[in-house]
Amino acid sequence: xxxxxxxxxxxxxxxxxxxxxxxxxxxxxxxxxxxxxxxxxxxxxxxxxxxxxxxxxxxxxxxxxxxxxxxxxxxxxxxxxxxxxxxxxxxxxxxxxxxxxxxxxxxxxxxxxxxxxxxxxxxxxxxxxxxxxxxxxxxxxxxxxxxxxxxxxxxxxxxxxxxxxxxxxxxxxxxxxxxxxxxxxxxxxxxxxxxxxxxxxxxxxxxxxxxxxxxxxxxxxxxxxxxxxxxxxxxxxxxxxxxxxxxxxxxxxxxxxxxxxxxxxxxxxxxxxxxxxxxxxxxxxxxxxxxxxxxxxxxxxxxxxxxxxxxxxxxxxxxxxxxxx
Length: 325
Description:
Residues 313-325 have low confidence and may be disordered. This protein has a 5-stranded antiparallel beta sheet, with helices on one face. Strands 3-6 form a two-stranded parallel ribbon. The chain has a two-stranded antiparallel ribbon with strand order 4-5. The chain has 2 domains: 1-101 and 275-325, 2-Layer Sandwich (Pantoate--beta-alanine Ligase, Chain: A,domain 2), CATH 3.30.1300.30; 104-200 and 213-268, EpsJ-like (Ribonucleotide Reductase Protein R1, domain 1), CATH 1.10.40. Strand 10 and strand 11 form a beta hairpin. It is α+β, with helices and mostly antiparallel strands. It has helices at 2-67, 116-128, 134-143, 156-159, 187-193, 216-222, 228-235, 245-249, 258-266, and strands spanning 82-86, 90-98, 103-104, 109-110, 113-114, 197-198, 209-210, 270-271, 276-285, 288-299, 302-310. 32% of the residues are buried.
């Protein structure tokens, strides 16, 4: 009889223990589900706010195109940072950058053909930034389809010895972060170079540089005759706003080589307006901070989002392609 009571007591304890374990497991799973649902809702809210910031950016660019067609500069309203907007669950802000004021790395090789003049231009940009000009040749090797090293270049044989090993893309850049994979581009080099270069979709022709929004080193890269003094005079502390090509060409600093600059405009290597804008936003919701970026392209007077992606780096930008829907 006592043995039976003992067995019954043990059985009861086991049942209570199992019930407790199941109850705790269900509670933990429920808490996990609640947390997951909360995260999904926060992500969705963040996405909708990001789309709202994109619409703000497109509207700002559309209004600018109506008011000052054929000219883009950093003194115009579209370039002003959006004031911080306070929300019930957080806040958001954003601003735009003109990517046509930077050197497009995909100009180095177009349709499989090395662009010698653009390689020399990139070398001048690197020199102006006190960086190794050999990086230009290594970028060419990264893009071109062959496995033959440029002078001072780097191909699969160099990257295959890395840990972990990898291969050259042998294709146009699709993400500025790829630059970090190039031989000689350390994090410090990347930080110096990033504000002056872009990765725009590879096209059939060179992407022109907007002289109104180009940085001093980018202006210096245009031609060997443009010294830092000349470039600083043209840049006007980042507030250049030439209303016409003649206004730019007639600048006193350019008169000694005005004909060369005229040729660059005729060859559509230089411009006063832009087609590619990077909209970047910061969204804080429920204590979570999210950064995003979108490439806005002007085509035929219309503006559209070419891609959007998380902003993974504080200064750099990603170009993981995601077509707008």
